[in-house]
Amino acid sequence: MRQAISCFKNIVVAILIFIIGSQVSAPSVHAQIDNKQLEKVLNGLVTPKLVNESNKPNLADRSGVSETIDPATGTLTLSEIDLTLPGKDGLDLTLGRLYNSSQAEVGTKRVTVTSGSSQTVGSGAGYYVTLLYWDIATNKYATYFPGYYADQTSAYNVADHYLKNQPDSGRRYIDYNIDYKTVQYVQNSYTTTTKIYPDENSYSRQRYDLGGGWSMAFPSLQIEGSYIHYHDGTGAAYVVKFDASNKGKLEDYGRTDVELLRDSTYTNGQMTSTYVLVDQNKKKTYFGSDGRLLGIKDRFGNEIKFTHVNRLMNGKNYPVISKIVDSIGRNIDFAYQSNLSDPNFDKQNMTENITITVSHPSTTEKKTITYAKKREEVSIFENGTLIGKRYEPYLYRVTDLNGYNTYYNYYLASEKFSAISKSLGGSEAGTAVYLLQYAMYPHSTSFYEYQVITRNWGGEGAYQAFQVTSRFDGLNRYNYDDPSKGIYAQGLYNKLDYTYFGDVTGYPTYKVEEVIPESYRFGSESLNQDGLKIRTTFNGKKQLLMTEHTASNGEKITETVQSYDTAFKYKPTKVETKTTSGTRENKLYQTYKYYSWGDL
Questions:
Q1: How wide is the angle at C-alpha 415 spanned by C-alphas 409 and 419, nearest 5°?
Q2: pLDDT digits over 78-87, tens only?
Q3: Which residues, 6 or more positions from 450, have their beta carbon under 8 angstroms from its beta carbon?
Q4: Any idea which of 64-68, 104-108, 293-297, 382-386 has the lowest mean pLDDT?
Q5: DSSP assigned state of 73
Q6: Cβ atoms within 10 A of the Cβ of 399, count?
Q7: Of 256 and 379, which is predicted with more confidence?
Q8: CB-based contacts of 374, cutoff 8 Å, min separation 6
């Protein structure tokens, strides 16, 4: 990896595996806990939502490149299209990649929760409801058991009532569990232990193995225990909630006519489907039991088929895409090298390649795209003792259909986290993060700089996250007088500096997101080279509240969302646009109405 040029260049990186824990005793029945439910929520719901940044608005030599720096979180997202193939009746195939700095971890944060003594709180056959909530008075997780019910629908209705209406002022209900059984136990105390999960691969690596932070722009299901997170292939992710009729709704999605269903009607020749996502146009996207993408069918019966091959990553096999057949019969084949552990890898300047070949049975013509990865060695520590080392890949170069190269370089930063402390100054666990430093396109280069901040990780823990503080472009030049210096970037173009206020998780003012009031404010401000400031403000419900554009001469345009739709959390119903120039002020009001399914 080339030398980093900013604040991270002297960072010593390691994957830290420190086992830490604390005993928490419950003073009353309401502090009792279902330890397995707490562990399930922290691992399967809280952590993926933080990494995926769910529950918030989703927002020439690089004609297929889109860059977004999220004003709510400071996360960098790059969307790059490598290939677009027109399909039958509009069922096109787009081969693209996504880089997301919040998903650039090496490994996955995990929590183990163990319990002390337990007691019986219910007896009798039925559907038992247990609700996990945050106790505002004690600042601890606890479990509430409202009872058991003769049928599943009644149990779901009760659980749904608590989560939607939040009827108890001293509690914030977070999640529920429904099981059919004959007796219900809760634990009197619990211990939270922080460690790196034995599966040391992040979700994006398990699914695509492109390198830290990168994924293919295809939909997939991230299945974490009993929780399902839908990745839509554009960078957004949604928690799926199944109702009593087994229909899965996407949490905070902008439509009601998109749902995930149980399904076993489709096969790609390797696996039978377990889930199908049906969109508003009746296009069906099929997934396997492990969340892999199997196929896409439109309402006319046209099909795109995906097949997979197992790939070994850190001692475990995961299915990665091996072949795509598009709607008019073109073949897109993926060939994977497996030489990352070759002892001569660095000495011989090797790369581990993914080669994509596009062909059609009717012609001998073939086109290729190559993703070339390099590696960094990271150390593994447990209780401060070095127990091993391994190599982790990063995407180094992409060679497009025309033979042009794009190069990527990264800051290899370290991220600390703890499930039992809001202060990250001791022996926390930790992992490495591949933060994109620059992307060098054929004629220009984009640069990025970051800062490290602390965010809430559940109600009792915290973790380090990274925000973009600056981005700028340079024009590529070749140093003919000193060829050893090669290509370099010159100039300072499209520079934007970013500052932030508050935090999307409420840290440090609030310990858990569920208690953040609507009156809370957070956001960011960007400043360009011409002195234009754009200040973006969100409220405690993570709704966009105001966007303020201020020119260097003092002229200002302010857009304020005055109300949101009651059914669609992020869809505005009334917006005020105020233009200020000197003493003159003009106001424009726009109102919006939506159909019951979400269209304007």
A1: 155
A2: 999 999 999 9
A3: 7, 8, 101, 411, 413, 435, 466, 467, 468, 469
A4: 382-386
A5: T
A6: 17
A7: 256
A8: 1, 351, 352, 393, 394, 396
Give the pLDDT of residue 419.
Answer: 83
Using DSSP's 3-state secondary structure scheme, residue 249 falls into: strand
Write down the residue that tokens 């965010």 correspond to.
455
Q: What is the mean pLDDT of residues 143-159?
A: 89
| Sequential DSSP letters for 325-390 | E-TTS-EEEEEE---TT-TTTTTTT--EEEEEEEE-TT----EEEEEEEEEEEEEEEETTEEEEEE
- Please, are residues 555 and 573 in contact by the beta-carbon 8 Å criterion? no
Q: Which residues contact 106 (CB under 8 A, 6 or more apart)?
A: 15, 200, 202, 212, 378, 392, 431, 432, 433, 434
CA atoms in the 13 A half-sphere facing the CB of 193: 14
Q: What angle do CA 562, 565, 571 make, to 5 degrees?
A: 80
- What tens digit of pLDDT does each residue of 306-333 get? 999 999 999 899 999 999 999 999 999 9
Question: Helix, strand, coil shares of the chain as percentages rounded to 5?
Answer: 10, 55, 35
Tokens 């106790």 sit on residue: 135
Q: Which residue has the higher pLDDT, 438 or 377?
A: 438
pTM of the full structure: 0.87
Tens-digit pLDDT profile for residues 317-373 = 999 999 999 999 999 999 999 999 999 999 999 999 999 999 999 999 999 999 999
Tell which phi-psi region holds residue 545, choosing left (phi > 0), alpha (psi between -120 and 50) or beta.
Answer: alpha
- Please name which of 378, 100, 416 lies closest in space to residue 237, comparing C-alpha atoms: 100
CA-angle at 63, arms to 58 and 64, nearest 5°? 50
Q: Which two tokens stand for residue 12?
A: 């010593």
Dump pLDDT digits (tens) for 263-286.
999 999 999 999 999 999 999 999
Report the alpha-carbon distance of residue 272 to residue 289 in Å, rounded: 8
Q: State the DSSP code for 90.
A: G
| Contact between residue 428 and residue 111 where contact means Cβ atoms under 8 Å apart | no
